[in-house]
# Entry
Amino acid sequence: MFNMMFSKISIDSLQTLFQSGEYKVFGEITNQYSGIGPNNERFQAYLKVAEELDIPVGIHMGPGPPGVAYVNSPHYRGKLHDPLLLEETLIKFPNLRIYICHAGWPMIDNLLTLLWAHPQVYVDIGVIVYALPPIEFHNYLRRIVEAGFGNRVMFGSDQMVWPETLEVAIQTIEKANYLNDKQKRDIFYNNAARFLGLSKETIAKHHR
Ligand SMILES: [Zn+2]
# Structure
């Protein structure tokens, strides 16, 4: 987890951590909870390191707990759900491997625009897969898949402190009648394997 407002790690230390191999993914970036969008200049210095070291980045863009600005994140703003806010960052760091946690729900039109214009971007379905009314989740996922981006969606639960939501999340994808078996497999595994750049050996090990 990384939040510009609370994380004290310096850019140099981040670089050292990633170079040591101790951490392999930079995320979840939770700046949205502090009202900080992806264009923040200081944050971009961290992204530069992630791009240079080819470290995948996961950024929260989408729902927090309902009404969270009135609970413990007074700077949380719904307008930062907007996936198009990433656009200038993507142009600036064209080799950055980045995925949007929670898929920018509910901003489907802007998400499809981003996925169309920037083929390197992936999304995950953490939280929205179990927290939304199922019909809303399926409408959202179906739009992404029918627009031709089913190969850029990665399974996630974001179960936090509710491990049983893992099962709910898996069942939700299993039961999606608009997905064929291959599309489900892509969401559960293949897309993430591609995004994360898993080696053939690692993939073989997972299938043993
Ligand atoms: Zn999140």
Residues 28, 60, 101-102 surround zinc ion (CB under 6 Å). The radius of gyration is 17 Å.
